[in-house]
């Protein structure tokens, strides 16, 4: 009889507990900077929470002002800001938002930076050259960031510039999925790196697709200008898939596509994680012999897709959202290095 009463009391208590939806993600706040609000919205939709209230504005002298519109005391805070558009303004806005949350007693502040700014300035390649990626790492740490989540860093050694944890996610699983679903003859294709620096990325994709790879060696006379290119590998009568981590003015990718067609490739696809597309990039792609240029949405692509029908976009918001969820719950993120979450 006594045990029956105890069981009834436990059942009554369970009935009064909040539903799983309200208990699923406690103590988490996700805020969006002004660089990519669409991606931040997709991340919170996936997590089943609302986007945090924040107002970002500029004073008449162009100083950035940020007002966090809700309490973050004791919360696990994630700030989504990509290194695109007005890069310097967006970076400053991110630093101010991190600091605002930190001094408002947030328990942990994580910067979700899908496209890391200044990632190409990662080494001293000539006399008196700055290592700006290290400087960005320092100012992010000093502003109060406790953790960084980013995607496809230009050089993975940038993780070592930080004294805080950095999760460098890969777009590779999403790229493999796109290739298998959208390129009919992918089994006989060849994966090509447009420069020696991307050889590791390309060999990894080629191994997982079980296809061959080729490499293009390029020499630059100065930044954003390619002088000469040499193809190493046989692409004759095959579909070539160019893979790189980013494309800015698209000079390299368009020259590489021409070189591959000259060498006998049937079709050329370009797959890039970060489609920056500045300067003459769009007109170059429109005039190039590329079947499609596939990018991820680490940078907003709506305008680029309207201007160029060849550009297609892979959504990686689910990978970033899953990384946020796993980090918040203290789970391992390594599953995302080789799988796309559904």
TrEMBL record:
EC supergroup of this enzyme: transferase
Nucleotide-binding listed as a keyword: yes
Names of required cofactors: Mg(2+)
InterPro entries registered for this protein in UniProt: PRib_PP_synth_CS, Pribosyltran_N, PRTase_dom, Rib-P_diPkinase, Rib-P_diPkinase_bac
Gene Ontology cellular-component terms listed: cytoplasm; ribose phosphate diphosphokinase complex
EC number: 2.7.6.1
GO terms, molecular function: ATP binding; kinase activity; magnesium ion binding; ribose phosphate diphosphokinase activity
Catalytic activity: D-ribose 5-phosphate + ATP = 5-phospho-alpha-D-ribose 1-diphosphate + AMP + H(+)
Subunit and partners: Homodimer. The active form is probably a hexamer composed of 3 homodimers.
NCBIfam families hit by this protein: PRK01259.1, ribP_PPkin
Function, in words: Catalyzes the synthesis of phosphoribosylpyrophosphate (PRPP) that is essential for nucleotide synthesis.
Protein name: Ribose-phosphate pyrophosphokinase 2
